[in-house]
């Protein structure tokens, strides 16, 4: 049936070029047009990638139509808009999401079926852009979905990394990294804009001269230059507008090879070109950790410089003056990664557009707002003064000037010397460094944390002095997730059940889920609920089998922890619990434990020794348990390789239990916690990040709480914490800990888990020993409730019904009201 003449595929006579209708026939026609005329393929020879690409192109046309409409309207209304600056994005696969947002999922499925093609197969073909590490990048993408859906005039800027986050494979139980060639098969979603490109300077020196009127002129004579070119990807909202994700790629400037070329030194010229392109080659894979590498600072400045030039271009295009920049644009800094934007905007306004310092500073401080995503000291960005001097000599001067004026202001407020040195942008305690969080804070009109707890701690810890100086500049915006991708697209079974009961309004108003509450008492509904969950668990079991070869019985309790591997997130606490169960089954012949599959997933930073050991520990425990016939009917342990947005979309719907077990005070918010609960998983967690608010919403009786609170953690540490003592006094814990060194687990390599063992016994910075008992006990309670599936189902329904607050639509509305003062313009 694939071997037909081209004409026979077009059922409509006289099909027109530029067909963008939404009917089944229109989609079929466009799909074939793309296959024939954009790719030059006929069905018999078309590869799966050709078929996927044709469909993607057909869908992209429709997405662009919506985008162009939004743009027209935004321009017409001369609206105030948001520019979102983020070094990372994790959009996930575009195709399914765009089909949902265009409301053509079924039409497309049928159109393809008539051509003997399966939509699901084509969806699988898409390689996602892995342009981020984890939470922060994914949050940026959720926000784009909501900005588009709500009709907020906005543009998102970032970096078009040629290699995204590394691909993770598990070999002999260890993480092995390889490069992510996400562009290998082409990228049908992006459009290059060769005419939107800007020059970016690096290095060199500055020249200070005075003119005849004694006015100071400063010129930056760079040592090198590169060009940034825009690549645009349209992001469509649900039933509504579209916005652009504009990513910059580094290239050599036109003149790059001039001198060398004329001298006939072709190779030297090309080498220079390659050096320029290095800037956007690869994403740094450190989540919540500094790399401190020059190339990373280059990446940050590169994308900030291009983005600010573009914003200014857009502003001037409308015939406006730069003095009003802050009235038309607000620029959101996604963490400090783009915070070099503060001195860069000052440089552009003062040096390039000749504004007076005070006027320029007023515009700058009213333009930026800054979101902090982490309090971990090792993640707070600091750049050595020497590095900035070499790479961005003019910016260093500007930072010093900002700092000296700021310090004068502090003196005016009678701040003490201690306070002043704590608050200074320059840390002179060791090698002088610039504290980027301070720079972002001084240069912004608003600063926010990402959950109520985190925003509170931000004011109490990292930015304490600043919060005292400017109490009104600090606020909270609790994170949210897009329920369109993480429920409607990824969990069609549950979505259909929801819509059947409460209608489809929840797609744009997640609060409508409240309407489900009363059905938790309805037995028939509960049965349907459990059937949907079981189906999703079967799907997850299939994924697990495909990816790991491990068989999971879908009836088991599926207990999941997926997130970056980090000691503060305490994946190893989960492992200690699993080992305690293993010992019960194995040594005490206790078969009363409900069958459970423990599923882990997440990447470790390639240079993070302990995180990589923790992965090896998980897989070693898996090897032991999964291959032991005495145990493997009751317990299974799985490590899913290469966790990604695509894989996540199978994981959340299939989970029964969500592990959110970080030490209190460390997880700024978490967003996986929200995705699990939205899909009907119950949570076991500490009072950390947004867990606090999730528990508040779903009710404490529907949440499995354990562990110390943030205050208790602080007190414990202040009193002097002795993990060894806890270990010595808890027989069960002792056995579990000793098992880490056993031959059974380590196969004779007794050194294998010593680093983890020693760390827990003698330092234990994240209080695993302290929280162990409380965790074990709460897990017993989980099992107790699990035995009563009706009760479990009730709790699950109530969790979903009460998740309204955690839509990213609500977060974006909060940003609009509390920070941006921007209004929606719906097409
Ligand atoms: C928090 N990443 C989550 C999420 O707000 C929170 C830091 C330095 C360099 C590279 N990446 C980072 C983060 O700091 C990060 O992802 N933070 C996370 O942001 C969104 O939900 O609790 O850990």
TrEMBL record:
Enzyme class: transferase
Family classification: Belongs to the glycogen phosphorylase family.
One Pfam family hit: Phosphorylase
N6-(pyridoxal phosphate)lysine: modified positions: 675
Reported cofactor(s): pyridoxal 5'-phosphate
Catalysis performed (reactions): [(1->4)-alpha-D-glucosyl](n) + phosphate = [(1->4)-alpha-D-glucosyl](n-1) + alpha-D-glucose 1-phosphate
Phylogenetic placement of the source organism: Bacteria, Pseudomonadati, Bacteroidota, Flavobacteriia, Flavobacteriales
EC assignment: 2.4.1.1
GO CC terms of this entry: cytoplasm
The protein, known as: Alpha-1,4 glucan phosphorylase
UniProt function note: Phosphorylase is an important allosteric enzyme in carbohydrate metabolism. Enzymes from different sources differ in their regulatory mechanisms and in their natural substrates. However, all known phosphorylases share catalytic and structural properties. Allosteric enzyme that catalyzes the rate-limiting step in glycogen catabolism, the phosphorolytic cleavage of glycogen to produce glucose-1-phosphate, and plays a central role in maintaining cellular and organismal glucose homeostasis.
Record keywords: Carbohydrate metabolism, Glycogen metabolism, Glycosyltransferase, Pyridoxal phosphate, Transferase
InterPro entries referenced in this protein's UniProt entry, alphabetically: Glycg_phsphrylas (IPR011833), Glyco_trans_35 (IPR000811), Pyridoxal_P_attach_site (IPR035090)
């Amino acid at each position: 049936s694939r071997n037909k003449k081209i004409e026979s595929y077009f059922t409509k006579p006289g099909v027109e070029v530029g067909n963008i209708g939404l009917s089944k026939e229109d989609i079929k026609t466009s799909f074939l047009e793309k296959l024939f005329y954009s790719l030059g393929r006929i069905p018999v020879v078309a590869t799966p990638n050709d078929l996927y690409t044709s469909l993607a192109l057909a869908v992209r046309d429709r997405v662009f139509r919506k985008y162009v409409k939004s743009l027209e309207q935004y321009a017409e209304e001369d609206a105030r808009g948001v520019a979102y600056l983020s070094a990372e994005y994790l959009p996930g696969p575009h195709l399914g999401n765009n089909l949902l947002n265009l409301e053509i999922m079924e039409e497309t499925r049928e159109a393809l079926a008539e051509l003997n093609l399966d939509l699901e197969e084509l969806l699988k073909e898409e390689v996602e852009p892995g342009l981020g590490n984890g939470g922060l990048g994914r949050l940026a993408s959720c926000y784009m979905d909501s900005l588009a859906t709500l009709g907020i005039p906005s543009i998102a800027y970032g970096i078009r990394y040629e290699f995204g986050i590394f691909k993770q494979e598990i070999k002999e139980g260890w993480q092995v990294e390889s490069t992510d060639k996400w562009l290998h098969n082409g990228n049908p979603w992006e459009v290059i804009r060769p005419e939107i490109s800007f020059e970016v300077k690096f290095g060199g020196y500055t020249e200070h001269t005075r003119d005849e009127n004694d006015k100071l002129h400063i010129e930056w004579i760079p040592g090198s230059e590169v060009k940034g070119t825009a690549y645009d990807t349209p992001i469509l909202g649900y039933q509504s507008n579209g916005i652009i994700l504009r990513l910059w790629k580094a290239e050599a400037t036109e003149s790059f090879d001039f001198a060398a070329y004329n001298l006939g030194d072709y190779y030297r010229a090309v080498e220079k070109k390659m050096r320029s392109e290095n800037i956007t080659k690869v994403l740094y894979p450190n989540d919540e950790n500094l790399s401190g590498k020059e190339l990373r600072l280059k990446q940050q400045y590169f994308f900030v410089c291009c983005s600010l030039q573009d914003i200014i271009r857009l502003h001037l295009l409308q015939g406006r003056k730069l003095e009003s920049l802050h009235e038309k644009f607000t620029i959101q800094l996604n963490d400090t990664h783009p915070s070099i934007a503060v001195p860069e905007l000052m440089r552009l306004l003062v040096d390039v557009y000749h504004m007076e310092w005070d006027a320029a500073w007023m515009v700058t401080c009213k333009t930026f707002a800054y979101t902090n995503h982490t309090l971990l000291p090792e993640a707070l960005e600091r750049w050595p003064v020497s590095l900035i001097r070499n790479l961005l000599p003019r910016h260093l001067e500007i930072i010093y000037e900002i700092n000296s004026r700021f310090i004068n202001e502090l003196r005016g407020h009678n701040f003490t010397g201690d306070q002043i040195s704590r608050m200074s942008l320059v840390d002179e305690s060791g090698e002088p460094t610039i504290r980027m969080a301070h720079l972002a804070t001084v240069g912004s009109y608003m600063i926010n944390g990402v959950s109520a707890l985190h925003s509170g701690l931000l004011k109490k810890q990292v930015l304490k002095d600043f919060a005292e100086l400017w109490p009104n500049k600090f606020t909270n915006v609790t994170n949210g997730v897009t329920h369109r991708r993480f429920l409607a697209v990824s969990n069609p079974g549950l979505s259909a059940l929801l819509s059947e009961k409460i209608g489809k309004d929840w797609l744009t108003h997640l609060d409508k889920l409240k309407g489900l509450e009363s059905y938790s008492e309805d037995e028939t509904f509960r049965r349907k609920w459990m059937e949907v969950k079981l189906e999703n668990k079967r799907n997850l079991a299939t994924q697990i089998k495909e990816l790991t070869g491990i068989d999971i019985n879908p009836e088991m309790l599926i207990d999941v922890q997926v997130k970056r591997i980090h000691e503060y997130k305490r994946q190893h606490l989960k492992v200690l619990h699993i080992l305690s169960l293993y010992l019960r089954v194995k040594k005490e012949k206790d078969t009363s434990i409900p069958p459970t599959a423990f599923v882990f997933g997440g990447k470790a930073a390639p240079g993070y020794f302990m995180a990589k050991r923790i992965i090896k520990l998980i897989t070693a425990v898996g090897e032991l348990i999964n291959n032991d016939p005495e145990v493997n009917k009751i317990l299974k342990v799985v490590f899913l390789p290469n966790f990604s947005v695509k894989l996540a979309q199978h994981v959340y719907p299939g989970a029964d239990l969500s592990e959110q077990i970080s030490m209190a005070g460390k997880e700024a918010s978490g967003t996986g916690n929200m995705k699990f609960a939205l899909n009907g998983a119950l949570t076991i967690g500490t009072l950390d990040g947004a867990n606090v608010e999730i528990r508040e919403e779903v009710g404490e009786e529907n949440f499995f709480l354990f562990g110390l609170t943030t205050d208790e953690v602080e007190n414990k540490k202040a009193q002097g914490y002795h993990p060894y003592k806890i270990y010595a006094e808890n027989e069960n814990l002792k056995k579990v800990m000793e098992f880490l060194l056993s031959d059974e687990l380590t196969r004779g390599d007794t050194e294998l888990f010593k680093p983890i063992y020693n760390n827990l016994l003698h330092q234990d910075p994240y209080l695993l020993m302290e929280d162990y008992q409380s965790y074990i006990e709460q897990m017993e309670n989980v099992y107790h409730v699990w035995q009563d599936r009706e009760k479990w189902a009730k709790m699950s329904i109530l969790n979903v019904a009460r998740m309204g607050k955690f839509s990213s639509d609500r977060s974006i509305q909060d940003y609009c009201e509390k920070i941006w003062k921007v209004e929606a313009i719906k097409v």
